[in-house]
Design a protein that fits this description.
235 residues; 39% strand; binds zinc ion; single chain; alpha+beta; Elongation Factor Tu (Ef-tu), domain 3; 2 domains; Threonyl-tRNA Synthetase, Chain A, domain 2
Length: 235
């Protein structure tokens, strides 16, 4: 088991750990603890470095199972490592992920449209909604409303709840918590206080004001009531 630092401290950009083993076929390193996000929920994985005795190993990807894919030779099992995230990239992804939840929250609260999926890159993302009324005339209105939520400086709270407790929260049931696999005993929730609450594994900023200015870059119809909205964040 790897201790997942990113689940409770999204601002950890450096950490110390011990190499516990390899995922050889992937040239991957396993650690007893990590702050590297392996990707999921539309948020791409982190990249960065592992440093052992002054020697640097580039982490080119992190995949499911918290496997750190490294270029070239692997550090020895038992070695004490310092993990260093590419923080510029990760922080942009945190701002972007929170921005996506702001969009979700506003579109649900004001238009009763639910989200069906999404994906992001640093400072841009797209989200799919069942949103019959979405049309060109709404773009400016939504943009104004999501920026108002950034300005409102709402705190973001992360919680890890027993599964039974999470299943009693109406907002979570709406966001398809029932799709979570049976075996998972705990549910991590991300709440933008006063706006949005979701079961979510990603890394977020602590307050919406960190997100910055948002722009609806485009939208398109995906057939029927399905609409895709493209979001961009000013650097
Ligand atoms: Zn999310």
């Amino acid at each position: 088991m790897t201790e997942l630092i990113y689940q409770t401290d999204s601002y950890a950009k450096e950490f110390t750990a011990t190499v516990t083993g390899y995922a050889g076929e992937q040239n991957g390193v396993l650690l007893d603890r990590t702050a590297f996000y392996p990707g999921g929920g539309g948020q791409p994985n982190d990249v960065g470095q592992l440093v052992v005795d002054g020697r640097t190993y580039n982490v080119t990807s992190v995949v499911r199972g918290n496997i750190h894919i490294v270029e070239g030779e692997l550090p020895p099992v038992g070695a004490a490592v310092t993990g260093i995230l590419d923080w510029d990239r990760r922080y942009k992804l945190m701002r972007t992920h929170t921005a996506m939840h702001i969009l979700c929250g506003v579109v649900w609260r004001d238009y009763s449209a639910s989200v069906t999926g999404g994906n992001m890159e640093p400072l841009s993302g797209r989200m799919d909604f069942e949103f019959e009324r979405m049309q060109k005339e709404l773009v400016t209105e939504i943009e104004t409303r999501i920026n108002a939520e950034v300005q409102a400086a709402r705190d973001i709270r992360v919680n890890i709840l027993p599964r039974e407790e999470a299943f009693k929260i109406p907002d979570l049931i709406r966001t398809k918590i029932n799709l979570l696999p049976e075996g998972i005993p705990e549910v991590r929730t991300v709440e933008i206080i006063g706006l949005d609450l979701q079961a979510d594994g990603g890394t977020h900023v602590a307050n919406t004001r960190e997100v910055g200015t948002l722009r609806i870059a485009d939208y398109k119809s995906k057939g029927g009531i399905n609409k895709r909205i493209y979001l961009e964040i000013n650097n």
